[in-house]
Amino acid sequence: MAKKKAAPSVCELGGPEIQVMGIRIKPTDVVDFNAWSCGSSANITVDILDSAGTPTPLANQQGATHVGVTLPALVPGDYVLVWSFIQASTPWKTRVEVAVNGTDRFRHRKDSSTSATPFLRGFLLLQVVP
Amino acid sequence: MRWSPRLLGVVATLASSLALAQVDVCKPKEGVDQDLFQLKLLRLPAPSTTTQLDKQASAPATSSVSPDLVSAADFTRLLGLAVDSGLITESSGATTVNLNFFSAIAALKPEVLDQQELYEKYTNVRRLGGSITFGGKGDSFDQDGDGVIDDPKTAESAGDILTWEVRYRVYGSRDRRDKQNYRKFRAGLGAVNDEQTRALGEFAQKFTAKHPDQLTAKYFCKPDVDAFLADPLNRKAIDEFIAREAALQQEFERIADEIDNALIVTAVIGGTERKDDLLGPDKRLYAVRASYARRETTFEGNLDYNEVKSFRSAPKQESIKLGLSYNTTRMRGLIGFQEQGVLVTLAANYEKYDNVPDVAHDSIARANLKVTIPVTENVSIPLSITWANHTDLLVEEKEVRGNIGFTYDLSGLIKPVP
Asked: Engineering a disulfide at A59: which of A46, B108, B147, B344 sits with its beta carbon 3.0 to 4.6 angstroms away?
């Protein structure tokens, strides 16, 4: 009997990865952060740190496949968006995207076959210019 | 020259794409992405091979490639899928259908494994399991009344013998994806993980404060990253980051171990139905099984009620069996070969029979305490004390005093060590 490949998971969708350490945005830009966890239960957190390192928690969810947040309006300056997954079991896959005004500017994937730790973290530097 | 609106649109799109494109400011092959940056912070090598520290507990073993059932869920395809997924197996003329309903659902809808919300929806379904076996062999017994035990007959058709068992996990879960379990990870690790995540952001900020050209670049540059990590001003923060990560990993393993060995209690109902009495009598089983483990300690408990239905002229046979077993290692670091400690095993069983031939007593009770002391790598001294409610049950003991038997084997002490 002919066999067919299983449909891709939501973590495999979205297109190729977009490699970048940081992005430059304007205060009026709408920045959306989206994270997906597949194959396991993950605790997903999202914070934004200002230039003094003061954190503002944006999300802390457990047991959800998808976490999505829109960043608050940011005054000019340097920030860093940080996120983490704690994966309860293997196998797992993740996908993280940051879009500015609806355009994807960052996409990152990981999976348990290439990561030996249940703790996955990421960051994206944001430079807000007037 | 006049620009058409369409051409202007294309130019604008191109200009926008160029503005978004990230500049690689590093020399070729000197780019450090964020995964490598984190590994370097933790002083871990870049991965050339992969390892997995933990494992999925209790997700079904379905194949990643499956026939597409949505388009044509005909019987042949369903059967093919069930065989692919290990839900149907054949052995010695018997066909066993695995009643792991969640495996069947996952084979039909693989997204229930991927998406936690869907996975959680079937939490109670995963408590249920079992099997049905069609065909196979009957029992050995005197089929023709000549006083000689005959070989068991084999079922001629699948419906001649039906053996079934249904299991339901009534208490506990070892599935890390169950809500009661995954919450333990956030509760035990959340605060330190948050600290680590923010520390990562601070490291990235600190690095780009020194190298502002790399803030919106494609990569950080390796020589700059290496210099940043080697900077004595950053050493303390990096050492603390590494220490917290090691503590997190250790705590994760402790929580995972607790979940993987949690107490679970399962109720079992089963039976055997036979069409022809030459295959043997019908049977019933009602049982409760409990299992628990924790750091060098295991506990198993089984309570079984078995019934063999009245058969030919024989009355109904009944038996109850209770078995308990507790294993632990004690005095580690104090005694035994390489201070391995001693293995202590406590086991007890009680059996009650009614109309069951070939058993010596209608009631059997036995308790055994065994201590095993390792004296070399390959030699251990077992010391055992057994109590039984009938002295003839103590036949394997070295010495018997009343209802108590003692067994010890000191031969390991005088055997030449190879």
From this structure: A46
